[in-house]
Amino acid sequence: MTETKIIPIFPLDLVLFPRQELPLRIFEPRYKQLVDDCMIGDGQFGVCLIDENNSVNGWNSPKLVGTIAKISKCEDVEIDGLQLHIETLGRNSFRIKRIIPPSITQPANYDPLSVEGHQEISEIHEKIGTEEKMYIQAEVEMIPEIDENITLEKWESLVELWKKKIIKQALPQVVDAHSLDHVLEQYYLNTDTPTIDYIYSLSAIGAKDPNELQPILEATSMDGLIKRVEELLTV
After folding, report:
1. Neighbour-count burial of 177, counting CB atoms closer than 10 A to its CB (0-12 exposed, 13-18 middle, 19+ buried)
2. What is the rounded distance in angstroms from the CA atom of residue 89 to the CA atom of residue 69?
3. What is the tally of helices (H) and strands (E) in the chain?
4. More exposed terminus of the chain, fewer Cβ within 10 Å: N or C?
5. Per DSSP, what are the bridge partners of residue 9?
6. Is there a contact between 9 and 137 (Cβ–Cβ < 8 Å)?
7. pLDDT digits (tens, 9 = 90+) for 72-117
């Protein structure tokens, strides 16, 4: 039986790939609690793309495959301590086996950006007990990392697909190949020794919407990954 563990979950409007850096500004009380708990523990939580078709106690629900984020830095944004800035790094991907709902249901007309919204959540939390978790948790199992190599020939074919897609999307504006090579340089994607991280990065700059990247994260083999990237980059 595959080993599982329970982790905090942070649904976001993005896909985090393994070994990618992700800075976050934390201002909601429930996610400040999440970060506080992580800093006491192993500094890890799960980042999942928001599942727009579902909710958990009124809150954004996560897609079932995400990536562990490890906090490498945490500091107050202002002296009042109302906002935190954290820096994280993606680690292994995981699959959710069971969602553990938060202790608080999202209040009607809740505004996460307002002081009133924060006060309302804090008051509810005090009533039910501050030891209760305001954020989603989940029982997850780790997904084995793809350890296969990509050939230089296959990598170069993916790059050509990406270029064709960008050129076509830019019409009627004309984009020359030299400018696209410059973009690849900016993202450190000019290489003779491509790895899976290069594939993730190329996918990220080739997608218009984070939902296009979720199938890339969910790939479990190099062949499956390349096929999904080809589908993403084919206009």
Report:
1. exposed
2. 5
3. 7, 7
4. N
5. 46
6. yes
7. 999 987 766 678 999 999 999 999 999 999 999 999 999 988 889 9
Q: Report whether 165 contacts 235 (CB < 8 A).
A: yes
Examine residue 62 and say whether the peptide bond preceding it is cis (omega within 30 degrees of 0): no
pLDDT of res. 78: 73
Please report the domains of the chain, with CATH numbers, ordered by start residue: 4-142 (2.30.130.40), 152-233 (no CATH)
Secondary structure class of 154 (helix, strand, coil): helix
Q: Is 96 exposed, middle or buried, given 0-12, 13-18 or 19+ CB atoms closer than 10 A?
A: buried
Distances from the Cα of 183 to the Cαs of 16, 157, 179, in angstroms? 21, 17, 6
Q: Where are the alpha helices (DSSP H) in the chain?
A: 29-40, 115-128, 152-170, 177-186, 196-206, 214-218, 222-233
